[in-house]
Amino acid sequence: MLDHHDLQSPARPRAIASVSDPVGAAIRGRLLRRYKRFLADVETDAGERLTVHCPNPGSMRGMNTPGMAVRCSTSDAPHRKLRHTLEMVRSGRIWVGVHTLRANRVAARLFETRSLPAFRRHDSVQREIKVGMNTRLDFALHRKGDAQPTYIEVKSVTLAAGRRARFPDSVTERGRKHLEVLSHLRSRGARAALLFVVQRADCDSVEPAGDIDPEYQEALCRAAEAGVEIWAVGARVTARAVRSERLLPVHL
């Protein structure tokens, strides 16, 4: 059974069980430019110029400066238009994961292995749940006998100021909509949560970036007041994997 403290964001970083999403980012190089949201040009260490897929819908503020060191993965899947994917950018002494779906994969592993104390009482994990005409949430955790599942939306975080991670890095109407949906589900008696996955190991907490998107900050505070749980996990990014390390406090 969970105790009261398991349902609260910690006051300071707290170690959790480590789970990993394998990456395999063997290509090293430097960023030339990021453009059209999902494209980037990279010059490899061998001098080859590549156009790669950039799987990040945000602004990548602080992570898109030409000349920054990067690592890319390679796929030979026949349906792909671009073989290579931008996985991470070097910031100081650490790698920052810019592939947003890695955050969801780490979250999935945490839920499947019941590695987060607040999310252990479930029998199955469902991904990509339709909760409205045009809205999906990332996860639903089902438990036999419960009238409703636990609904969870995951957000990948790359922006930081000092040792505090910040979200979002650009105005996000979609992010506000997810908070409204979670609040609505909570009002109907369901458990609902937002999980930030910080894809950099140099942050000790998370906060909303109100200077970038004040409406998102307001929506996040309203959601928390409505009973939506706000959680954050810090992950370490390497050329081989994105690995969960700590539960981080969230400051609203």
Account of the 3D structure:
With 252 residues, the protein is α+β, with helices and mostly antiparallel strands. The protein has two domains: 4-21 and 99-247, Trna Endonuclease, Chain: A, domain 1 (3-Layer(aba) Sandwich); 24-97, OB fold (Dihydrolipoamide Acetyltransferase, E2P). 16% of the residues lie in helices and 40% in strands. The protein has three helices and 17 strands. Strands 1, 2, 9, 10, 11, 14, 16 and 17 form an eight-stranded mixed sheet that branches. It has a six-stranded antiparallel sheet with strand order 5-4-3-6-7-8, with no helix packed on it. A three-stranded mixed sheet has the order 12-13-15. Strand 7 (84-91) and strand 8 (94-97) form a beta hairpin. Helix 2 packs parallel to helix 3. It is globular.
In short:
The chain has 252 residues and is of the alpha+beta class. The chain folds into two domains: 4-21 and 99-247, Trna Endonuclease, Chain: A, domain 1; 24-97, OB fold (Dihydrolipoamide Acetyltransferase, E2P), CATH 2.40.50.580. It has helices spanning 100-112, 173-187, 214-225; strands at residues 14-15, 20-22, 27-35, 39-44, 49-53, 69-74, 84-91, 94-97, 124-130, 136-142, 150-157, 159-161, 164-167, 191-198, 205-208, 229-237, 241-247.
